[in-house]
Amino acid sequence: MTDAFDRASALETEERERILNRHLNRIKERPEHYGFCNDCGNTIPDDRLAAQPDAVTCHTCQSIREERGKRGLGCGSR
Q1: pLDDT surpassing 80 at residue 72
Q2: What angle do CA 40, 54, 35 make, to 5 degrees?
Q3: Any residues with CB less than 8 A from the CB of 61 and at least 6 apart, and which?
Q4: ∠ CA 37-42-45 to the nearest 5 degrees?
Q5: What pTM was estimated for this model as a whole?
Q6: Cα 14 to chain centroid, rounded
Q7: Which of 60, 30, 32, 35 lies closest to 49, judged by CA?
Q8: Distances in Å between the alpha carbon of 49 and those of 15, 20, 23, 59?
């Protein structure tokens, strides 16, 4: 019983590490199409691109990402 528990615990830890690494790698995200939001596909406003040329999300999707405290979870209306 203990061996099964230890194995399940190790698998859960590995899965959490994989998920965390995926999120950390999203920080280095590149735009799929420059000037368009990676999350919803809408145009990223010129003022946002002027202020942050490497922006990959529109204001709305970036706010959602920050609110959720995660990367890669935009508004999902793509």
Answers
A1: no
A2: 45
A3: 37, 38, 39, 40, 74, 75
A4: 80
A5: 0.52
A6: 19
A7: 35
A8: 35, 28, 23, 11
Residue type, 5: F
What pLDDT, in 10s, does the model give residues 27-59? Answer: 567 778 899 999 999 999 999 999 999 899 999
Q: Where are the domains of the chain?
A: 2-68
Q: Which two tokens stand for residue 10?
A: 């190790």
Q: Quick check: 74 pLDDT over 50? A: no
Rg (CA), the chain: 17
Distances 28 to 4, 38, 55, 71 between C-alpha atoms, Å: 37, 13, 11, 10
Q: Which amino acid is at 62?
A: Q
CA distance 31 to 58: 11
Confidence at residue 71, expressed as pLDDT on a 0 to 100 scale = 45
